Amino acid sequence: MEMEESARKSTWDVNAKETNSAPPFEIAIVIDSREVENKRNELGGDPIRHLSTALSNAGLVVETDDGANHLVYVKIAAPLEVIGRAAEKLRLRKPTNVGLDVVFDWERRDAFSRQPLGDALFSWTERYQCLIAIVNTVTGTGNTSEPLVKKLQDAGVIKEVMPLHQEQQRKWLVEHWAMRWMDFTSQPLDAIYAYFGAKVAIYFAFLGMYTQWLIFPAVLGIILNLTDQGALEPAVPPVYAMIVVVWAVVFLQFWRRRNASLQNNWGMSYESEELQTIKALTKEQQGALLRGAADQEEVYGANVSDYEAKVLGREEWLTRIRTLKNNMIAVTCILCVQLPFELLYAHLNKFAPNDLIKYILTAVYILSIQYLTKVGGQVAIALTKSQQLVNKEAAANSMIYKVFGVYFLQSYIGLFYQAILHKDFSTLRSMLAQRLIVSQLMSNVVENLVPYATYRWAEYKARKAEDQIKRETGENAPDSHVSRMDKEFLTPKYEASIGSDFEDGLFDDFLELAVQFGMVTMFASAYPLVASFALLNNLVEIRSDALKLLVTMRRPAPRQAASIGAWLSIFQNLGVVAIVTNCALLVCLYDDAGRWKIEPGLAAILLLEHLLLLAKFGFSWFVAEEPAWLKARRIKKAYIQDHVSHRLLGILEESSQEEILQAVQNPALA
Amino acid sequence: MEMEESARKSTWDVNAKETNSAPPFEIAIVIDSREVENKRNELGGDPIRHLSTALSNAGLVVETDDGANHLVYVKIAAPLEVIGRAAEKLRLRKPTNVGLDVVFDWERRDAFSRQPLGDALFSWTERYQCLIAIVNTVTGTGNTSEPLVKKLQDAGVIKEVMPLHQEQQRKWLVEHWAMRWMDFTSQPLDAIYAYFGAKVAIYFAFLGMYTQWLIFPAVLGIILNLTDQGALEPAVPPVYAMIVVVWAVVFLQFWRRRNASLQNNWGMSYESEELQTIKALTKEQQGALLRGAADQEEVYGANVSDYEAKVLGREEWLTRIRTLKNNMIAVTCILCVQLPFELLYAHLNKFAPNDLIKYILTAVYILSIQYLTKVGGQVAIALTKSQQLVNKEAAANSMIYKVFGVYFLQSYIGLFYQAILHKDFSTLRSMLAQRLIVSQLMSNVVENLVPYATYRWAEYKARKAEDQIKRETGENAPDSHVSRMDKEFLTPKYEASIGSDFEDGLFDDFLELAVQFGMVTMFASAYPLVASFALLNNLVEIRSDALKLLVTMRRPAPRQAASIGAWLSIFQNLGVVAIVTNCALLVCLYDDAGRWKIEPGLAAILLLEHLLLLAKFGFSWFVAEEPAWLKARRIKKAYIQDHVSHRLLGILEESSQEEILQAVQNPALA
């Protein structure tokens, strides 16, 4: 135990010491030396040497490694002070020990709170942000002010800038996280946060908590399935469905609490929503927002709200209408193209005269669905781009909703077809079991195997090419082997299957979880065992996703994210949809016993009721609570507050805790 | 037009000038001079003179008026600087011209934004708050530090401290607001805000906007009622109901936007939620919250969250469970006592053999409902108090929900009884028309007549008593008449009918509106004319409520409120309930044509679905998104920020608008 603790300390305290003699190499610039030869004249001198000098001058520690296949790796490390100074220039906001978030100030670094694990001043996300900012701003030796890295990227000399795995920490994580199959749902979240950043850590926190909560419906489902309820038998599906729906609501609500407390533990600030928005804007937009308000005050005096309301109000409604239009296009595409296609397949599959035709049908279906999904993804990306969302996070969310819409139909339409049109509950059950056990478990294996095979293939090609080079140059060395840097470069990136414009590989992982959550909640009344299949799958998923990130993939660039974002709304809406689907399934389940029929008039009224409930939610979304000009004003306020916040530190040091306390306790006239 | 403008200026700019030679008298202390005689020895000297001296010493302008019936009125006015200094000591937060809210600082008063109307530095709410704080803290001439006013109140010498009407402004408002019947829904909201404070102004803003929006369903309802739709006849009720439900959702959403923009125009700050919470706490609780956090940091170092989570987490759940218990008691009382009672009355009334018995029944019902409502109000107050809500606003809201529950059943159960149990739609319609036209219009008259009659009676008594005194003292004066100050004292207070513990007279006005809104939305499918009755009533309501506040009532103490609070949730929930009730009404409406029947099994499933939807909303409420300890931490943060915020002013003056702009446009490394 003590040994383990000391191992943990030596692994995670690497970035803690302020005067670290040898900071670890955290990012690498991959250079193609053949291109260097080709463009030596054009670039004026040796770009590798130029780059190394420029980076060293910026205070970074630089080391150059020769790799296979004419590649050169420029590895970069940064002493703490260099990061600190960069953070100051970037105006990074950080929580202080007094509980206030202020802009970082290197001279007052002791006032800022440290990382939960390893006691470091900066998180990996912050270090990466600073490193990239420094790398992107160094200029060449000439009197040009053009950033050197951008120039070399444009010239094709730099192939990539990539974050590097840290061998010691990776080993610790593999040992204490990825291979700990017997830990079930518990995971070293602080270490995951320290190594991968908030977004990945929050995914695993969600996956762990969801799996833990699944135990309850899973065990209940197994008990209900194994025991004989006798006369109470007909009551089991509705009761179980009710329990699962309530369970889903309670689980998501508790997740939000857990999310809030993780956010707090990891020192992610609360009030920064406005600031994040302003930082996501382009420089022109930022200027327009803030200068706009200043101009107005000159022209309109104190009462600027009329002007702001007019200008921003129009823009606000145009954006809303553009979004509504795009969403309608997306929904129309899904309903008019995808829905008939999926129904056709389900129908033909059910009534195929023999198995051979069924197999052919399925093959055709799988091929065309691959193609259609790709087209759908392209359409979704195009639509999202045409919405002109200024905020990158909002664009990613809009994308997530659209793609999930496509997957929603694709995943569930076959199931509903069996249940509602044909009341074929045994086929429905076997399809559910098959999807959850075979598909999801399989995909866990594939997720790891495909990248591994890709890597082996790339490695093989690289070795082949290297041997070829050696033969050409006449060297008579033995079979070359691939260096560690080469390995890192050859492992595949952690990317989303729909394209890397908005999201990284977490998109696919969340999509899988959401589809599964839908099956657990929406079909609870039809098949109580679904939850136990999901539980089984997720126990494997936790470790296989961990292995994927640690071993088979390149280290992803860290992303700061306070929550699971759009996915939370998707999970919550699946909970609401589950209420309706379970009721519909119950009607179908009992209907074949001939106990009742739905008259058309009553059905119309019920439909009306559900449409109205939908309209209520829709309108609440369409009409934002707060006018855009007010929001802009709030953003401006937050920005001004931020602009002066670092000066508050001195003030806070002057006034002691006692003084603040006294002021609180005597708020009335003294 | 120009004359009107100058009249407006001279009326509302009274508090604008900084060196106002004669500030208006805004509050009065009512003293019973008989008690003064009785307790002269006990109090040591003449308390009236003591009080006047003490108030003058505090910088206030004091004038004493003799009234009828041994009353003495000490009228108080305050020069601007006295208010300003008091605001500084009270640490009032005010918006500045740069758009930041900071604690008021008299020396830097020019940096703060001014009132929208009259250009004054302080709003009436702020002035009142400062005046009351000064009055409550002045001490006697002796070496005691006991507040003089409290001592005199305890001794029975001071009967009341009341805000005074401002004759000029009141006259302006009567002319330009209360008597402008032809303005329909438009009102001088800024003037209402300046004279009555935010809470009253927001009520009238809501009433005006609601009335304006009512025009659409009212006109549509009249058209549908007057024209003949021929074959489309059966489609009218569902379509109209759908339109009204959607209308309600859209209206409330737009109201929230309007509310936000009014809030901004009136300079009410946004971020102050946490601050309001902390200010509502007792001194002990404030100390515990802030000192607690400080202690924890000593003991637990950086990671205090575990400790906080444990301590505050327990308290949080206990509060929730206490609230849940109380709500369940309230719901049980309503369902087990009120519901059977109301149903019994409706039933007996329907099947009464003759009219005489009906009248007797109704008389008994009205008498007992008066008594039951009073008991219910007492129970609600007791329950709310037992919840130990630290926040006064939260207690008022909790009270509002409970009392509305009682009124909900009382107002609607008879209507549902006719519609659902007896499918008697003609009685339902006549009951709706009767309630909206007779009851609500009548109540508008009564609302004004009762206080007026009360006032006349009090005036008559006072004059009688005065004559008696004169006869006793042997004066031979003519019939005394009542002075202006006497009149103000004799007019009734603006109080809630359920008791003044949590709310003032706005409670009754909002309750009336909510009951009406429920009738408009919930019974839309049964009777399209309801909206037009409501419109008619509200056009009268706006002016009669204005008259009540300006003429027949004492000026209410101003209250700062950012929104219509709990009433908004009630209106929104009525919108959701309306979806269900309209569907139920439609089923009943068509059912008597014998077109369909609901089988018990299907009914059970539908019930289940609605229960689940309810459970979903219920659980979202029960499990708060954010743990209590996190909220406490956020509050602490906000408080610290507030504590140092006034020092930001100097900093903001140093850094010009240009400098801020530049900083925005170059956020990257320079």
UniProtKB/TrEMBL annotation, chains A, B:
<feature type="transmembrane region" description="Helical">
    <location>
        <begin position="328"/>
        <end position="348"/>
    </location>
</feature>
<dbReference type="GO" id="GO:0005254">
    <property type="term" value="F:chloride channel activity"/>
</dbReference>
<protein>
    <recommendedName>
        <fullName>Anoctamin-like protein</fullName>
    </recommendedName>
</protein>
<feature type="transmembrane region" description="Helical">
    <location>
        <begin position="561"/>
        <end position="590"/>
    </location>
</feature>
<feature type="transmembrane region" description="Helical">
    <location>
        <begin position="513"/>
        <end position="540"/>
    </location>
</feature>
<feature type="transmembrane region" description="Helical">
    <location>
        <begin position="200"/>
        <end position="223"/>
    </location>
</feature>
<keyword id="KW-1133">Transmembrane helix</keyword>
<keyword id="KW-1003">Cell membrane</keyword>
<keyword id="KW-0472">Membrane</keyword>
<dbReference type="Pfam" id="PF16178">
    <property type="entry name" value="Anoct_dimer"/>
</dbReference>
<keyword id="KW-0325">Glycoprotein</keyword>
<dbReference type="InterPro" id="IPR049452">
    <property type="entry name" value="Anoctamin_TM"/>
</dbReference>
<dbReference type="GO" id="GO:0046983">
    <property type="term" value="F:protein dimerization activity"/>
</dbReference>
<keyword id="KW-0812">Transmembrane</keyword>
<dbReference type="GO" id="GO:0005886">
    <property type="term" value="C:plasma membrane"/>
</dbReference>
<feature type="domain" description="Anoctamin transmembrane">
    <location>
        <begin position="192"/>
        <end position="634"/>
    </location>
</feature>
<feature type="transmembrane region" description="Helical">
    <location>
        <begin position="360"/>
        <end position="383"/>
    </location>
</feature>
<feature type="domain" description="Anoctamin dimerisation">
    <location>
        <begin position="38"/>
        <end position="97"/>
    </location>
</feature>
<feature type="transmembrane region" description="Helical">
    <location>
        <begin position="602"/>
        <end position="624"/>
    </location>
</feature>
<dbReference type="Pfam" id="PF04547">
    <property type="entry name" value="Anoctamin"/>
</dbReference>
<dbReference type="InterPro" id="IPR032394">
    <property type="entry name" value="Anoct_dimer"/>
</dbReference>
<feature type="transmembrane region" description="Helical">
    <location>
        <begin position="235"/>
        <end position="255"/>
    </location>
</feature>
<feature type="transmembrane region" description="Helical">
    <location>
        <begin position="404"/>
        <end position="421"/>
    </location>
</feature>
<dbReference type="InterPro" id="IPR007632">
    <property type="entry name" value="Anoctamin"/>
</dbReference>
